[in-house]
Amino acid sequence: MLTSLRKIVLEFSQDSALDSALTRIVTQIKTVMRTDCCSIYLADHQKQHFILMATDGLAQESLGQTTLGFSEGLIGLVAQREEPLNIANARQHPHFVHAPAVKEDKFNAFLGTPIIHQRKVLGVISIQQEQARYFTETEEAFIVTLAAQIATAIASAEATDILTKQQGNSQWVSSIKGVAGSSGVAMAPIFSMQPNIELRSVSLKQTHDVVHEQQRFLKAVKSTRADFERMTKELARSIADNSLDIFDMYKQLLDNANLGKEVSEKIAQGWTAESALRLVIDGYVVQFEGLDDDYLRERASDIKDLGNRILYNLKVLNTTVQAVPESFILVAEDVTAALVAEYQHLGLKGIVSLQGSNNSHAAILARALAIPAVMGVNRIPLEKVDQSMCIIDGYTGELFVAPNDALIREYEHLIAEETALTAKVKEVEGLPAETPDGKTIAVLLNAGLSSGFEHTKTTGVDGIGLYRTEIPFMNKSCFPSEVEQTVLYQQVLQAFSGQVVTMRTLDVGGDKALPYFPIIEDNPFLGWRGIRITLDHPEIFLLQVRAMLRANANIGNLEIMLPMISSIVEVDEAIRLINQAYYELSAELEFEQGKSLPKPKIGIMIEVPSVIFQLGELAQKVDFFSVGSNDLTQYLLAVDRNNARVANLYNSYHPSVLKALNMIAQESQRFMVPLSLCGELASEPAGALLLLAMGYDKISMNSHNVARITWVIRHVEYKTAKAILSKALTFSDTQQVIDYLNEQLELLNLGGFVRAGM
Ligand code: PEP
Ligand code: MG
User: Which of these three, 292, 315, 338, is where a domain ends?
Assistant: First the structure.
């Protein structure tokens, strides 16, 4: 039976059409279980009923017609109880409902089991038999196991099915779920990219005209390189960000020494330019796709994209270019950073990528450009959705295709609210974050990884509270040199001279991988990460610290922050290395008499719960604390922040997280250590108010939230924030906290700032 089960589940999940998958599976179940009838009902949550979707045994005419209310009949009972129901004689059961259309009069035995995905009943599988008997335990176990296994496939297949149903039924709108890649909401027609030219469709051909093919290839490479130069220039106008380094990889690959050389060699062997290109790109893609490392696997799509671009330029003369609408949501199988760059100035309102995750360069770039993005949305037929109206919610990672009027109105309202708020909050740009009764909190910028280093655009910040140094390390093919790092850090320190810049030492591991330094672990968030790596590799740590100190030599606004600290010895060891770098560099730099290398303050991130209980000892050793609430939430609640399955359990408003944050604030005040928070909580209105009330000195956030949070703080009395905090700390459940905070924000006329689910 196990083999049958595996086979049935595999075939089901491999079928791209839900209808045919259901039709096949009912027959397979009926055959394997040697019974007389198997049917599947799926839930329509809008209409609160089950629809008969597939059957082998009941009347075929009733398919798609027969419905049962959520609490109606035996099907409703199975769903309500969320457990199997095994009855020898169904018609004698008090919940039995006679539905003549399905023609089930001859059946007596009934076994129903719910199909549940993420606590939601998606449908019910029922087995019926003429002989009045109870189904055996083995039969029951088989059907329960099968239902659990096909639930995920049904949930994702429904996404595709929704699209079809929605076209003809404006009442029913369900969302298609992906991964939130970049926050914000957008509504526009879909511009679906179906590249006319794809390398995979090139058939391999030989030629005698090697010289001509070499020339064609060189020309195409030149045009492709020019395309990248143009894109980089256009992008640089929008962001001054090291996300642009993404294109360095493309440019490096185009160099003669790399991909270019290999293609030329293939042409020299007699292949046409297109064939040679395909052979070389395929080779790279296979290599990259075979790697275990997520980051490197993502690079396979960059290489495919590069190949398609060169191919485009090889064929450009006989290609028709797709007209780009005035405003649009870009939907493509694999939205790459290059695609985002190409369309960002052309009315691009949002991004939906069927592949990729929030670690993809496209998502990183979307965040830098403040364009909402939903990544990893599986199974959308691109050709079907092209030009359909669509809403994307980059906060929740949802996509609505062909939304009905009610949903459009709801989102129009949200977008209008967002736009109005953005305009309104601009009034406070440059003003301090000070409550009407005189309490101030410093607002700083998170830069580096997600929101980019937008010094030219961000006014009203008191400096950089978190500079994530990972990106310069991620976009290279080896660790960046001391000189490279120095130049980069100097730019940042210089741009904020006179204000503090808190640079965090390398925090890779967990979900942030370096292409040239793969770390394969079963539990990466509990593994070799952050300071654990850099202490094990003092050569990397010392190099980075030296670069920071050197960059700071004539500016003097640097602070160094250590990530993932979980014990005192790590702090001692890191400080020892920082001192070593400091004294060595001081000696090397030969300062004029009376001058010396500025000594930066050193702080730690509080993100591992163990350090909350050693703040007194840590206070003797460091100059400041900064709470990383993203990780602190993950470690306190034991919920992987990147795992969609437990995403509903990850919440920084969990009472224990709030209590921990409050305790950290009290302890920091007691030990007189300046305290900041640089996780996402700081950029939420309710979060910022709570942190202000707890006594945090600084909050740090991405540039898009600075004005919004400053506005909120300038409109709430400190004493009100204190009262809200006292009450918020009394709840025992996360939802109660959230409801209470939403209610208070409404009362303060700040309701517009609250996004669904916070
Ligand atoms: C955090 O953990 O809250 C934090 C700011 O660091 P990161 O998100 O980079 O892990
Ligand atoms: Mg962290």
Answer: 315
Q: Any bridge partners for residue 109, and if so which?
A: 129
Catalytic (active-site) positions: 361, 678
Element containing residue 619 per DSSP (H, E): helix 615-619
* Residue of 468, 505, 637, 698 to mutate, ligand 1, most atoms within 8 A of C-beta: 468
- Number of domains comprising the chain: 4
Neighbours of 739 (CB within 10 A): 12
687 lines ligand 1 (CB under 6 A): no
Query: Which ligand 1 atom is the nearest neighbour of the CA of 629?
Result: 3
Which tokens go with 100? 């003549």
Q: 359 and 383: one domain?
A: yes
> Any residues with CB less than 8 A from the CB of 207 and at least 6 apart, and which?
213, 270, 271, 272
Nearest alpha-carbon partner for 104 in 137, 126, 82: 126
Q: Return the CATH number at 223.
A: 1.10.274.10
- Is the pTM for the entire model greater than 0.85? no
Query: What CATH code is carried by the domain that includes residue 146?
Result: 3.30.450.40
Which residues 6+ apart lie within 8 Å of 201 measured at CB?
Answer: none
Give 684-722 as a DSSP string: SHHHHHHHHHHT-SEEEE-GGGHHHHHHHHHTS-HHHHH
Residue 629 near residue 649, CB atoms below 8 Å: no
Distance, CA of 121 to CA of 409 (rounded, Å): 29
pLDDT tens for each residue of 411-461: 888 888 778 878 888 889 899 999 999 999 999 998 875 434 444 446 789
Look at the alpha carbons of 129, 134, 138, 141 in this order and tell me if their dihedral is positive or negative: positive
Query: Which pLDDT does position 27 carry in this prediction?
Result: 95
Q: 205: domain range?
A: 199-315
Question: CB–CB of 440/432 below 8 Å?
Answer: yes
Q: Which of 703, 718, 733 is the last residue of a domain?
A: 718
Tell which residue, 714, 709, 648, has the closest CA to residue 678: 709
Query: Does the Cβ of 702 fall within 6 Å of ligand 1?
Result: no
What CA–CA distance (Å, rounded) separates 124 from 227? 54
Comparing CA positions, the residue from 429, 463, 468 lying closest to residue 452 is: 468
What is the tens place of the pLDDT at every residue in 251-281? 777 765 677 888 888 899 888 888 888 888 8
Check if the beta carbon of residue 590 is closer than 8 Å to that of residue 609: no
Q: Is residue 637 part of a domain?
A: yes
- Amino acid in position 236: A
